[in-house]
Specification:
heterodimer, A: 275 residues, alpha/beta, Rossmann fold, 2 domains, six-stranded mixed β-sheet, 10 strands, 37% helix, globular, disordered N terminus, B: 254 residues, mainly alpha, MetI-like fold, binds adenosine-5'-triphosphate, binds magnesium ion
Chain lengths: 275, 254
Amino acid sequence: MAVTQAPFHAGEFDRADPVPRSVQPRIRIRDVTLSYGALQIIGGISVDIAPGETISVIGPSGCGKTTLLRMLAGLAKPTSGSVELDGSVLAGPNRSVAIVFQDYGKALLPWRTAAGNVSLALEARGCPARERPEIIRDLLDKIGLGRHADKYPSEMSGGMQQRLQIARCLAQEPKVLLMDEPFGALDAMTRQALQDEVLSLVAMTGATMVFVTHDLEEAIYLGDRIVCLQPNPGRVGRMVDVRLARPRDQLMTREDPEFLRLRRELYDLIKDDHQ
Amino acid sequence: MRTSSLRKVFLGLLGLAVFILVWKLITDAKLVSPIFFPSPERTLASLIKGLSGGALLGQTLETVQRMLLGWLLASLVGIMLGALIGVSRRARAFIAPTLELLRPLPASAMIPIAIAFLGFSNPMVLVVIAFGALWPMLLATIHGFAAMEPRLYEVSAVLGLTRLQTIWKLALPSAMPMILASLRLGLTISLILAIVGEMLASRDGLGQSILLASRSFRSADLFAGIVILGAIGLVGSRLLSLAEARLLRWQATR
Ligand SMILES: Nc1ncnc2c1ncn2[C@@H]1O[C@H](COP(=O)(O)OP(=O)(O)OP(=O)(O)O)[C@@H](O)[C@H]1O
Ligand SMILES: [Mg+2]
């Protein structure tokens, strides 16, 4: 069975989990709720994420995707429940959990060049100054910014700035990569190129990824599983397994009957939420 | 770009020439007694004489030194204090009302207090300069820190920067445009207070020299002093503009 039909209970998702239970989850989200005052934003989410797994998160606007991601990054504290990283409760931001913010314009340091922005992550983890230039060059090359190391963010396009943010996150050498609609503002071609870059980087580093997106196809293309959130309060409506071969390919994968089936299924699901 | 900046310089010089010409016309027509209002030529002659052997050069150096010392003191204290207050929301809430109360006080109100403590001395003048020039830097730093993009604090937390690193690498650079503008304002205030301080406390320098020249109706010397004051202000502000353009290169591009 490719799709878990029973929502709402964490235990039931575990059965559909492609990774054996004996492996300790990288991230364990346990009955997490979050309220602002009397208003409950997140209403009890439980998900286990295995090491190396990529989870896509979709859901209507305002359902709490960003809020969930911020809790995983330690930037927001759950009102009840907990987020565990490798078995211990996440008390706050942690260097091994990197986050790519949606608003790249605000997350980069405008007074530092591309190289300088990546360097910030290295400086933070105490990497000796001698070793930085080489690491920076490697990372910028990897993400396709090798020729733009000396440009300031204001001299770069949106796609380049978002790449730079990803490069800075990679410099953190994180175990977990959180992405909040990172490609939302980009054109289709740039978007697909970056999707492939991110997939190959994740494959190379073995990082665990949680990827928030509005785009159903992007969610399928990137994910091992897809968490569909429902709003008011935000909770897991459905968990969908993506059984598509890796490495994925923009043409082949998107023409795969399974891809089309999943797209249809998710589309129906989201449509219901909007009614 | 090149040509337009050349044109700007040319226009500036033209304006200056017109100004001097009008000055000369007024003095040639003897609209005002030369005892109070010297001609440009007499002013220039006095300027050359004073700078090339007279006391003017030494007095200029005295004043510039006083101004720079007071300005440096004010900048250091202002930026450090501003950073201390700026990083903590609680510290800002605690101290901001007091600052708002003190800030509108003119620096001259501080002079009697400084005299009471330090007498008519060089340290007294220095304290007056530093106190007066402190405010722009202090407030700009506080506001610059408070206005830092909140997202950057989150970036700092996620990357695991220490508090000191956050101040040094994020808050200070992001407050830099405001701080640099305030440094320029502070320099102007320092020059004004250096002159006033010298006049009041009879310290060696341009302020005293101008005052003495005016008392003994040496109008050419008086004007020569004023021309130098203007030049000091101009050069100082230009140098800071250059530093600003260099430090804020990242801003100029878009
Ligand atoms: N600081 C806050 N105080 C009060 N309510 C908040 C706060 N932050 C978010 N919310 C509310 O929480 C809900 C979820 O917000 P969130 O940003 O997580 O949604 P989202 O799923 O990311 O939406 P989008 O797809 O539009 O980005 C929204 O209804 C929002 O109004
Ligand atoms: Mg969001």
